[in-house]
Design a protein that fits this description.
The complex is a heterodimer.
Chain A (H helix, E strand, L loop, with lengths): L3 H15 L3 H14 L6 H38 L8 H35 L5 H47 L14 H7 L23 H104 L1
Helix pairs in contact in A: 1-3, 2-3, 3-4, 3-5, 4-5, 6-7
Chain B lengths: L2 E8 L6 E7 L9 H17 L6 E6 L2 E7 L4 E7 L5 H18 L15 H9 L2 H4 L1 H56 L5
Antiparallel strand pairs in B: 1-2, 1-5, 3-4, 4-5
The chains are: A mainly alpha, B alpha+beta.
Chain lengths: ~325, ~200
């Protein structure tokens, strides 16, 4: 944790405690400083702007510290993944506050920077170290603010992801037919028109945007965004519903195709069965013919058999008679 | 999810005045109905006043939600529902009602409760009580889902058909080979030894 702000404030308090007449000196030096430009001694010129700069820097440091605490709290809130215990009102309020704080901090740092530049332009060249120190302080504060804004952006992204996840999970329990297929690229104007004004995917009643919150946003703009948002939500929900219809239709098409494919696979089997039954038919008719032939043979054969037997018996008789 | 009331409010004038309305308060006790009805009228008029033309809003209040859509002609439609009613359906209903209203009574002077009669509002409340019935998009979605279920069943039955086909194929194969044996035996019997 960066505690240079505390350091600044301790230094100030010690200084004021050790030399109680110094603040009055500084104040006295203040008014001549305002009237004339740089005609005071180097010490006097050094003391007053440095204290002002350090005062402003302390304040900014304190604000940054407070904002980072709020950011931590917001990050903790946004990390929760429970389905039902979500607290969107708190989270959006906190986000709003943090946005305002960051904007204010930016303004303050800009002010400080201008003061430092003024000071550097005015002061003589022998307090080079002081100039460098002031510039460094400003740069440090700016970098801390930039780090905070990037953390804020990360938290916002995490929050939108979590909200999307909870929305999906909630939809799983409520609307099982709904599926989002992004591969179904449609050229319908509904897609293009409705996608443009929305850069975020949120459930309704939440003011979120994924753009890095530039510190130069006004409150008025945010209000207008809120008003337009209600319309956008309606359009968005309509487009979501129609998207789901499109995806259902797409699925239906796929199912029909599958059906057709399965039936065509079974066509081969049907052909095999057909061929088999034809074979069976021919075999059986052939066998029947054979049997008929055999039967006719046998039935006609009996007469022949009688004749043959008669011949044999007669031959056997003649043989026995002869012998 | 229910709709409690539909109002068409003339919101160009201050205070805004309801032109036509339709209520369905059967879910409340008999003695509370009139007070709840008045409260709803008041709520509808207030939120219609506060809405800019061309703007849609959904405002929550105790257990009711008022969906309001203001048109540029100076009328606004308000639908008061409970919290679960999907706002999209409410807004599409409002679109429909306001279109009909403005085509039927385009003249501002006619906008008084006595001269405008819009009995279809009561009917709309009844049909839209179940949003899946009233809203076109939801109807289409529901039919598609039913079709999908039917198709699933069809595919299952086709799979069964496939299994039966398999068994048929096997049995016809077996039959075919058996009949072939039969034929051969018969033939053999015919051709073989005449003497024995």
């Amino acid at each position: 944790m960066d505690r240079s702000s505390e350091f600044f404030s301790t230094v100030e308090s010690l200084r004021s405690r050790a030399q109680p007449h110094l603040p009055s000196d500084k104040r006295r030096l203040l008014s001549p400083m305002e009237q004339q430009a740089g005609s005071l001694g180097a010490g006097g010129a050094q003391n007053k702007p440095k204290s002002e700069v350090s005062l402003m820097a302390t304040m900014i440091g304190k604000d940054i510290h407070a904002t980072s605490k709020k950011l931590e709290k917001l990050a903790r809130l946004a990390k929760r993944k429970t389905l039902f215990d979500d607290r969107p009102v708190e989270i959006s309020e906190l986000m709003h506050i943090i946005k305002l704080d960051i904007a204010k901090l930016n303004k303050q740092i800009a002010q400080l920077q201008s003061v430092v530049k003024e000071l550097n332009a005015k002061s003589p060249h022998n307090c080079r170290q002081a100039m460098e120190h002031n510039c460094n302080v400003v740069v440090l504060l700016q970098s801390r603010l930039a780090a905070q804004t990037s953390t804020f952006k990360d938290v916002l992204e995490l929050r939108t992801e979590n909200m999307k996840a909870t929305k999906d999970r909630r939809e799983q329990f409520m609307f099982t037919a709904q599926q989002q297929s992004n591969t179904f690229a449609s050229d319908s104007p509904l897609y293009n028109i409705d996608r443009r004004p929305n850069s975020s995917t949120n459930p309704p009643k939440d003011i979120l945007s994924l753009d890095l919150p530039t510190p130069s946003q006004n409150l008025q703009q945010q209000e207008q965004v809120q008003l337009v948002d209600a319309n956008n939500q309606y359009m968005e929900s309509r487009s979501t519903a129609i998207e789901s219809i499109e995806s259902t239709l797409h699925e239906l098409g796929g199912i029909f195709q599958q059906l057709a494919q399965m039936v065509s696979e079974q066509r081969d089997m049907v052909q095999r069965i057909d061929a088999n039954t034809d074979d069976i038919e021919s075999n059986v008719t052939g066998a029947q013919t054979e049997l008929l032939k055999y039967y006719s043979y046998v039935s006609s054969n009996r007469w022949l058999m009688v004749k043959v037997f008669a011949v044999i018996i007669s031959s056997a008789v003649t043989l026995s008679v002869l012998s | 999810m229910k709709i409690y009331a539909i109002y068409v409010v003339h919101n160009n004038i201050k205070p805004a005045k309801a032109i036509v309305d339709a209520k369905d308060l059967t879910s409340f006790g008999f003695f509370q109905r009139s007070s709840i009805g008045e409260f709803m009228t008041f709520m509808a008029q207030t939120i219609a006043e506060k809405t800019q033309p061309g703007q849609r809003q959904s405002i929550e209040e105790s257990n009711y939600v008022g969906h309001v859509y203001a048109r540029a002609e100076g009328v606004a439609g308000v639908v008061i529902t409970d919290k679960e009613y999907p706002p999209r359906v409410a807004f599409s209903l409002l679109n429909k009602i306001l279109d009909e209203f403005t085509t039927r009574f385009p003249n501002n002077q006619l906008w008084t409760p006595e001269q405008c009669s819009y009995p279809e509002l009561q009917q709309y409340i009844v049909t839209y009580q179940d949003p899946k019935q009233g809203d076109t998009i939801m109807k289409v979605q529901r039919e598609l889902d039913e079709t999908k279920i039917i198709l699933h069943k069809t595919i299952e039955s086709v799979l069964e058909r496939g299994e039966k086909m398999e068994s048929l194929v096997e049995r016809s194969d077996v039959l075919s080979s058996q009949s072939k044996m039969f034929y051969k035996t018969a033939k053999k019997q015919n051709a073989c030894c005449i003497i024995c």
